[in-house]
């Protein structure tokens, strides 16, 4: 069955994570994605290890786990874009593509004639997505942007971690490159919006456009309710550890053998929790009867709940509370996650054939489409493994022409 985006060709000039995450999602949905890489070097993340994928004898291959996480369903083509002939090849591929994704510094591709203004002359229908740290405009536009830096500048680290006055307090980044991931998701949404606009009056009836996507913009947008807490009150939110600024109790609690999460979202759930814990009077105490009251008296309530939750194991609490529809759960390690029966039932681990290792594990795509499901067509490609085939199929280059390009080290 053809994927929802099987009619689209994406030229991916991006590296690291935000751009490749966007193009991998488009590829999972069926698009043909041609990943352009530097000859002999490739995407930076190919070298971001260990860990590296192990072969069938347990020896590490050349494929870093980081790279493998964002590049499946793509075709790797190596082209030296600093050379005039390499630039010509990319322009020719852009002329036959629907989308181009790049994350060079602002103006970085103009010197090669591969910027939006240049490629629009070659293909007016091209949707051209530029991902940068700070966008194409503004005083910070020339700066390089990295996820860790943006988590700090964009306010996320001011909200993550224990309060300053607590033991171990201070700013903390999120444990994955979340701003990059979110930017990739915004990028894929923006690409599809631009495609829908281009094609809305008929098949490819309109023109493409330029998408200017900045990591800082994305991080500010994703402050979400915390941004609104500030904008409506004038008070900057502070770090609360695992607690919630607007809901109580909504955090981790100690148990007899570890920790669990309570995610109580309304007064009825709180009453059921108190009954389950053998303390129904807590739910009628005026200090705790409503969420607003619990937020106001957070420092009085949480110690009382801590004293209750340590009396049973995590498993005992979860069994007891789930039977009473009180939202709760364990704090899993990554190993626990992939052992979880729900995660397994949903197919969130996928194993694909790999030329060096026999198989490579992948984290599945979470999108479930009833008529055009995502597909896992091929593992993240080896560097340059599709160069000859793509240039022959898409551009019609002969074997002699390919041999000449290789001799000149252009591909």
TrEMBL record:
<dbReference type="InterPro" id="IPR003673">
    <property type="entry name" value="CoA-Trfase_fam_III"/>
</dbReference>
<dbReference type="Pfam" id="PF02515">
    <property type="entry name" value="CoA_transf_3"/>
</dbReference>
<dbReference type="InterPro" id="IPR050483">
    <property type="entry name" value="CoA-transferase_III_domain"/>
</dbReference>
<dbReference type="InterPro" id="IPR023606">
    <property type="entry name" value="CoA-Trfase_III_dom_1_sf"/>
</dbReference>
<dbReference type="InterPro" id="IPR044855">
    <property type="entry name" value="CoA-Trfase_III_dom3_sf"/>
</dbReference>
<dbReference type="GO" id="GO:0008410">
    <property type="term" value="F:CoA-transferase activity"/>
</dbReference>
<keyword id="KW-0808">Transferase</keyword>
<protein>
    <submittedName>
        <fullName>CoA transferase</fullName>
    </submittedName>
</protein>
